[in-house]
UniProtKB/TrEMBL annotation:
It comes from the Eukaryota. Residues 178-284 form the Fe2OG dioxygenase domain. Belongs to the iron/ascorbate-dependent oxidoreductase family. This is Fe2OG dioxygenase domain-containing protein. It comes from Conger conger.
Length: 319
């Protein structure tokens, strides 16, 4: 099974006032991808490869800084449980019993203090790039939500209206009432002799928000679980963004859109390449109550925050 590539040009970031009828073809294509596969590559999204490369570059500059420079930004100490730096090998994902071979930085709060101003000249413009990329991703993902609502014959604002605080004001986004997160990931070259049995770059899991945007560097390894039960590679395709449905959207649509299990495996032995990705987890506002949009009670209503906290504790474990 291949992951479809869909052209988003008609509604790319920057294009305004598009009549619903112009989104017909796009909505049919996205609906079939998300009901059958759960993943899609979007080309012509309006976020350019140049912008992605620039975000990747600053992200790598940050990850290659010495441990002690990154320590003040550690997650869970200074800035709450989502926002901040996750050091190498200190998190495990899904049911995997070994620690992921990765380092990460979660951006869930765009306040200057939270964003590494302290890094000063070590990673110049780190904060500005994060804010800017977060806002670009927010713009794209809210467009996708509108198309998804249309594709199911629903009020085009049904999903959007529960994401009113993803972008909030000039300098902030989310914060206390919306936990949408931009996550920078760095998977260093793997020293085969140090790898434990079962250890991978990121354990198998499904994401728990509404939708997820995935920007990948050239290093491969991302795989998703196909319906046949086999894992399928999702390589990086320059100029595209990979989008997947996450758990809350699956619930919201009474399981019509599928939140697909995925993981990041190790490179073949002897392959010393690193891997980078930049992920945008779109989440509804904390107090949004998610009920099945077809009027059934297939999934019991829950607030986005309650659902998130439950899935968060099931998915991630920290050292
Ligand atoms: O690195 C990747 O491409 C995927 C990581 C991932 O699935 C996640 O952080 O949820
Ligand atoms: Fe994921």
């Amino acid at each position: 099974m291949d992951i479809p590539v869909v052209d988003f040009d008609v509604y790319r970031v920057g294009v305004e006032d598009v009549a619903d009828e112009k989104l017909n073809v796009l909505s049919k294509e996205l609906k079939s991808a998300f009901t059958e596969v759960g993943f899609v590559y979007l080309k012509n999204s309006g976020i350019s490869q140049h912008e992605v490369d620039s975000m990747m570059n600053i992200s790598k500059t940050f990850f290659l800084l010495p441990h002690e420079v990154k320590m003040p930004l550690l997650r869970g100490k200074a800035y709450g449980s989502i926002h901040g730096w996750i050091s190498y090998g200190s998190e495990r994902t899904g049911s995997n019993r070994t620690w992921d071979l990765k380092e990460a930085f979660n951006i869930a709060d765009l306040q200057p203090m939270a964003l590494g101003v302290a890094l000063g000249g070590s990673a110049p413009r780190f904060r500005e790039k994060q804010v800017w990329f977060y806002r670009r991703c927010a713009d794209l993902s809210l467009r996708v939500l509108r198309v998804l609502a249309l594709s199911l014959g629903l009020d085009p604002d049904i999903f959007l209206s529960k994401h009113s605080r993803v972008v909030d004001g000039e300098q902030q986004a989310g914060g206390e009432q919306n936990r949408t997160t931009l996550r920078l990931l760095y998977y260093p070259p793997v020293q085969t002799e140090c790898v434990q049995e079962g250890q991978v770059r990121c354990g198998e899991h499904s994401d728990f928000g509404t939708i997820t945007l995935v920007f990948q560097g050239p290093g491969g390894g991302l795989q998703f679980l196909g319906r046949s039960g086999d894992y399928i590679h999702a390589p990086s395709i320059p100029g595209t963004v990979l989008i997947n449905i996450a758990d809350m959207m699956q619930r919201w649509t009474s399981d019509r859109f599928i939140s697909t299990i995925h993981r990041v495996v190790l490179p073949p032995p002897g392959d010393m390449s690193d891997r980078q990705s930049v992920i945008f987890f779109l989440l509804p506002d904390d107090d949004a109550v998610i009920t099945c949009c077809d009027g059934t009670d297939k999934c019991p209503p829950a607030t986005a925050l309650d659902f998130l906290m439950e899935r968060f504790s099931q998915t991630y474990e920290e050292k």
